[in-house]
C-alpha cells in the first residue's frame, strides 16, 4: 500500500503503526494498490475544514474526502482513494473519554476514515451496524482491542 501520512501538528507522533493498520485494513478488505493521504491536524484546523466543506462549525474527530466519489481516480494500477483528516487533539480526548488507549482511538479513526473513503457510512442504524462491525473486525484481527 502506498500511503502518505502528514503530521501538521506541533506534537511528535509516531505514525508507523497507523500506516501498518491502514495497510492491514486494505489487505483485509481486498483493496488492490491503494493510495491515500492521512493528514493529522489540530482541533482548530479540523473545525475549519468541517465548517468549509460540511457547513458544520464544530470540532470533529475525522473527516474523509473520497476521490472516487468525484472521479474514478486511477493511475496505472494505483487506486487513489482520497484523504483522511484526523484531529490528534480530539483523538486523545476521546481515548480518555472512552477509557481506552490513544493507540486504539488513533487506529479506530484511521479505519473509520478509510471505510468512509470506500463508501461506508453511518447515516442509518443499519449502515451504522455494518460499519461498526467492520471497524471492530479489522481492529480485532490486527490485535487492537478495546
Write structural notes for this entry.
By secondary structure, the protein is an alpha/beta fold. It contains five helices and five strands; from the N terminus they run βαβαβββααα. It has helices spanning 16-28, 43-54, 88-98, 102-117, 125-142, and strands at residues 2-7, 34-41, 62-66, 74-75, 78-87. Strands 1, 2, 3, 4 and 5 form a five-stranded mixed beta sheet that branches. The longest helix has 18 residues, at 125-142. The radius of gyration is 15 Å and the shape is globular. The mean pLDDT is 91.
In short:
With 146 residues, this protein is α/β, with parallel strands linked by helices. It is built from five helices and five strands; from the N terminus they run βαβαβββααα.
Topology diagram in text:
Layout: E1 2-7, H1 16-28, E2 34-41, H2 43-54, E3 62-66, E4 74-75, E5 78-87, H3 88-98, H4 102-117, H5 125-142
Parallel strand pairs: 1-2, 2-5
Antiparallel strand pairs: 3-5, 4-5
What spatial form do the alpha-carbon principal axes imply? globular
**Share of residues in strands:** 15-25%
CATH topology: Collagenase (Catalytic Domain)
Main β-sheet description: 5 strands, mixed
Arithmetic mean of pLDDT: 91
Number of domains: 1
Give the number of DSSP strands.
5
Structural class: alpha/beta
- The helix tally amounts to 5
CATH architecture: 3-Layer(aba) Sandwich
CATH superfamily descriptor: Metalloproteases ("zincins"), catalytic domain
Task: Tell me the helix content.
Answer: 40-55%
What is the rounded Rg?
A: 15 Å
CATH class division: Alpha Beta
Residue windows where pLDDT falls under 50 for at least 5 positions: none
Give the topology string: H per helix, E per strand.
Answer: EHEHEEEHHH
N-end to C-end Cα span = 26 Å
Amino acid at each position: 500500500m502506498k500511503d502518505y501520512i502528514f503530521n501538521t501538528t506541533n506534537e511528535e507522533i509516531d505514525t508507523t503503526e497507523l500506516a501498518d493498520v491502514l495497510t492491514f485494513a486494505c489487505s483485509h478488505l481486498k483493496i488492490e494498490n491503494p493510495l491515500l493521504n492521512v493528514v493529522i491536524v489540530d482541533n482548530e484546523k479540523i473545525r475549519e475544514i468541517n465548517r468549509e466543506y460540511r457547513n458544520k462549525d464544530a470540532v470533529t474527530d475525522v473527516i474523509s474526502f473520497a476521490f472516487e466519489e468525484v472521479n474514478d481516480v486511477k493511475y496505472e494500477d494505483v487506486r487513489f482513494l482520497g484523504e483522511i483528516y484526523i484531529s490528534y487533539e480530539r483523538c486523545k480526548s476521546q481515548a480518555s473519554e472512552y477509557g481506552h488507549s490513544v493507540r486504539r482511538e488513533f487506529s479506530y479513526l484511521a479505519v473509520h476514515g478509510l471505510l468512509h473513503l470506500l463508501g461506508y457510512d453511518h447515516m442509518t442504524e443499519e449502515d451504522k451496524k455494518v460499519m461498526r462491525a467492520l471497524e471492530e473486525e479489522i481492529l480485532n484481527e490486527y490485535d487492537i482491542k478495546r
